[in-house]
What does this fold into?
Amino acid sequence: MPFGGARPKMRRAKACLRIDPEAPRGEIMEAIVERVLSEAMEQLRAAGKVPQDLHLSIVIERPKREEFGDFGCALPLALAKATRRNPMECGKELMAAIQAPEGLFDAVTFAPPGYLNFKVATAAWFDRMKDVTTLPAVGAGEKVLLEFVSANPTGPLHVGHGRGAVLGDAIARVMRATGYAVQTEYYVNDVGNQMAMMGLSLHCRGREALGLSDGSDFPENGYKGQYVRDVAAEFVATAEGKAACEQPYEDIGARDDNPCTHFAEQRLLVVIQDTLKAGGIHFDRWFTERTLHQNGALAATVQRLLDQGHAYRDEAGATLFRMEGKADEDDRVMVRASGVPTYFAADIAYHDDKARRGFTRLINIWGADHHGYIPRMKASLEALGHDPACLQVLLVQMVTLTRGGVAVPMGKRSGEFVTLQEVLEEVGQDAVRFLFLLRKADSQMEFDLDLAKSQSMENPVYYVQYGHARVASILRKAAAQGIAVPGWEAGMGDVLTLPEEAALVKDLARFAAVVASAARRCEPHHIAFYLMDLVKGFHAYYTRNAHTEKVISADPVKTAARLFLVARVQSVLAEGLALLGVSAPEEMRLTADDEPASEPD
RNA sequence: GGGGGAUUAGCUCAGUUGGAUAGAGCGUCGGCCUCCGAAGCCGAAGGUCGUGGGUUCGAGCCCCGCAUCCCCCA
It folds into this structure.
């Protein structure tokens, strides 16, 4: 059977993301090691062995080879370079100056040509399990306005929009979880040429539906998709719509402000909103461009720029923004000679509005084809007295859609495109989100529809979710035996002696650092990769020891420690998935239809 | 012509402000279910990190040239 019905039936768990802003900042092991080294440097500085004005950045890394320990640092190399001395001497001095807290390290060693390696004691690692899901508040309450998607209401969203939508939504979740005050907005371009063309397209299709036209007068650049006919059919079924289509387009109002454009906007926004809802994407506010025209903000902004000399009128009567040679750009038209403002003018007013609302950081997610707008947006913010650095544009590269390796032509005007709605229905919300979030925004990606669907059974997202469900299954079994998941106790770490257990503890301890880094860099894909890593370790732990060292055993001490451990794995998986907007099912089972076919005898 | 991005395993992609023997998923090949969920695990094969220079103790990462692809502007 086709793959449509092959998706696993799953019960959704309640989102279990708990962020306590008052909680003490969960300290990351890297930070602890870094502090120790930093103090050692101070010691050497006080002893006159390091120049007063020398401040090296201390980069703690995780060596790839296990025998090097848990952490490595090339500080001796850097110090040797800066002081023109022997790396080994520097390393020995640093080691002598290290005063680590009792019990933190099992070993600190020097490795040529100039590394310091740290082996952290098991108990110290296990100590981190106390608050493994506590995320550091790196955002410090900064007010962030995150604007994304913002597709014109001239048609359904396509897959490219989906990438930006999923990315933006995930960034919002990640940043909120790490102490940023994020508001998400969708800016609706409901004014201008494209809206006018949309209205005209609807008008033409309406006339066709009424038998007033054979379609030969449909504009060359009109929106040709079937959805326009569908909306037109609804439109002419209303008295107002019928009346509008019976008149010439020029007679029913402004080209971008008339019954046709209003109906199209209203209907298509609903379509867009339904799709976003189906993708689990939330916006705090929908901001329409028209409000800027109506409340005078746009005109006031233009006037302000004129008054302050950042804009001028040319001979033809158009108003241009002065780029003042910045970024080698030409001056840009804000108001045409005809008096009609451009999208650029509205964008300036919108961004001014954002900054005036007290947001100190404006993040925009744009398609890579808009990168050319960045210099002029920054310049306009600066002209209006805002710090241009507050604008941070994340460019999302194009998604090339293929079906079975063959490129699918995409064009809203031509009407030939696969909608995001269709992809969500075919592939599933969780899989679509995870697939997008498994790639960094900054690189082009290929989205093969057949592959996304055909792989749905082996999709990475199910691998992660399966880990969560697997733990849930263990916990259900324990509960059935009357065994509760215990809280943290120091002694538990001594019982978790399997190499897979030690590896899991270390992986869990990374969670906060990964999320904090993802938040700072606005790159949620690091979380997706982390979850893949973590769950891989869990599956290995589970399967390797399935016959010998079970979680639930006759040994109550081991059972308690292991239940605690796997419950932490589950929490981190659930929280990590929640940060990506992906569900964490308690149960995932193949339906009867999906059982692998038995071997033919 | 100017600008942005990309180039890493057969395919799709990671690679954390320059660090030790470059990774994952999928695909391929070979193993593992009486026993907490096999949507799993274990192993193997697979690489001149597009190319040529440069910077230095050290480059997939930084600088310059070139090639190819995507996008924007003129």
Remarks:
- Chain A has 21 helices and 17 strands.
- The first helix of chain A runs from residue 29 to 46.
- Residues 1-26, 592-601 of chain A have pLDDT under 50 and may be disordered.
